[in-house]
């Protein structure tokens, strides 16, 4: 027997915005989670002396990983390069922002679902969450701009892209709310 | 009276699985670019153990989700939302995704089981060794794990595209998995 359990009066804009928020939210939660782990793992495993040991590249491991000896040695240089390029304040600041971003991104999954159902609290919550995510992007942008060229190359384009996506979601939610208000 | 949408526990588990799967993909690309392990270079230890922990947890969560899914089945979608033919295809696609998640997790565990590294589930429960270290078997299961993961990613992309399609149509399909 069919019930009217599922809200069928969701406006199109809310349905689309909700699903886009969910898809991006799932992806961003994973990205921020990975970033948090990066900032936790790299500084914690750097040798105290600051001198990186020689890469350990046994032939069987190279075959298993499908990499050359030069690539294997580069993996060590790569981590060393990132550590050298990071100012002292960078890992903790980036980790804090990533943690906040991860929580907000997961909240955007919940809010996206609420928008698809067009619950009474969904639009206002979406505006708050999307604004929070855009703010985290802006802060990360400022952090990375103040680091160095290596980290700017790694992070800046991605942070900018996320900022633009969150700005679009935010403007979309505000426009939807205003449209809804005008209709009533 | 049967509910139209999925059971709320299934909905919560679905989104937890989604986040975990994307985390496993994205973090694995990064962790494979960390230096190979040696006595002095231990960058991979934590990310690999976390990868295994989440993978094993995924199998458990997926098992619970499927149990709940069959115990509290949703009503079939309305024909105006999805034709019966498309519904059959979607069931097959979902079955393939579930099967691949199981396979990717199990092949990953079997690959790891043939290395010298132990599995300590969430750093608490040490799993007994099920096999001796064997480079060939590690590579065999590792390759299956990798290729199956790529296929899973492709199916997940199709799954997302279908969800977006239904959200643009604004039909009742998408709300079946959004019961807040």
UniProtKB/TrEMBL annotation, chain A:
The chain crosses the membrane at residues 12-31, 94-115, 127-148, 154-175. Keywords: Membrane, Transmembrane, Transmembrane helix. This is Uncharacterized protein. It comes from Methylophaga muralis.
TrEMBL record, chain B:
GO terms for cellular component: plasma membrane. It comes from the Bacteria. Keywords: Cell membrane, Electron transport, Heme, Iron, Membrane, Metal-binding, Transmembrane, Transmembrane helix, Transport. It is found in: Cell membrane. Pfam families: Ni_hydr_CYTB. GO terms for biological process: respiratory electron transport chain. One of its GO terms (molecular function) is metal ion binding. Residues 6-179 form the Cytochrome b561 bacterial/Ni-hydrogenase domain. Its cofactor is heme b. The chain crosses the membrane at residues 12-33, 53-70, 91-110, 147-168. InterPro entries: Cyt_b561_bac/Ni-Hgenase, Cytochrome_b561_oxidase, Di-haem_cyt_TM. It is a multi-pass membrane protein. The keyword Transport applies. PANTHER family: CYTOCHROME B561, CYTOCHROME B561 HOMOLOG 2. Belongs to the cytochrome b561 family. This is Cytochrome b561 bacterial/Ni-hydrogenase domain-containing protein. It comes from Methylophaga muralis. The lineage of its organism: Bacteria, Pseudomonadati, Pseudomonadota, Gammaproteobacteria, Thiotrichales.
